[in-house]
Model the fold of this input.
Amino acid sequence: MRMEAQARAALITGASRGLGRAIALALASDGFAVALAARDERSLHLVAAEAKSAGAPDTLVLAGDLRAPEEPVKAVEQAVAQFGGLDALVNNAGATARGDFLALTDEQHLDGFALKYHAMVRFCRAAWEPLVTRKGAIVNISGIGAHTPEPGFTIGGPVNSAVINFSKAISKRLDGPRVNVVSPGHIETDRLSRRIDTYAEGHGLTRDAAKEAMRGELGIAAYGQPDDIANMVRYLCSRDAAYVNGACFVVDGGATPGI
Ligand SMILES: NC(=O)c1ccc[n+]([C@@H]2O[C@H](COP(=O)([O-])OP(=O)(O)OC[C@H]3O[C@@H](n4cnc5c(N)ncnc54)[C@H](OP(=O)(O)O)[C@@H]3O)[C@@H](O)[C@H]2O)c1
Done:
């Protein structure tokens, strides 16, 4: 990968752990200053320290609940004020409830959209002009539930599909930053860990046995690691991806059954 000429700045949501943390550290090691958004301030400071060690010239912690309509504008304004501009926006924060749709409430549906869809739209709007100025990039994190609907994932799947549809739509404006999507498969983060625990409980298995049984059912040779996603995001934020726009990249170890 080519070395970037000047220090650039990125804002990453859901950066306190999991994929967001890995993405922040990958961009830091590419020389980006990183603004880290999520609720858990203490974890964000720990990630900021790791980002500094990885090579970030500057860091900014943005602690807040991103479901609140005013948070994205505030976060972007603070990042632009501190870094002097913005080159990359990674919308990664997401938390959608699983379960049978007959049991899921309106509140759970609205909550799933509030964070992963509406906050993403607000971040894209708030960061649009700064990203135009720097000829920057947006990467929105979706998920393979968008491509393969499942009866137990009737909030996350539609939210992820909406993320892809919106991303493609704004990429067609052609006046703005490049806009791409990454759809992760089954990646080992807290989120997957909770899913394995639920599977173990539901099937009366030990955690290790549940992890292995679930892997078999999912049709993958191994679970993915956060860096598998971070590596794709860092490429999409780099100038090597200058001609990549309006695309969706599935990074799932082959889990998706169709083409
Ligand atoms: N891991 C996978 O296998 C997988 C697969 C497909 C798609 N994805 C997608 O990838 C993204 C990251 O997943 P992950 O596995 O890294 O999840 P995770 O470990 O649960 O992390 C979620 C991140 O979102 C933040 N967040 C949650 N609620 C928030 C809120 N209300 N306001 C601000 N930040 C909030 C969390 O920080 P705080 O708790 O500190 O706020 C955390 O940093 C999600 O959009 C998920 O749908 C993941």
The first helix runs from residue 18 to 29. Residues 1-5 have pLDDT under 50 and may be disordered.
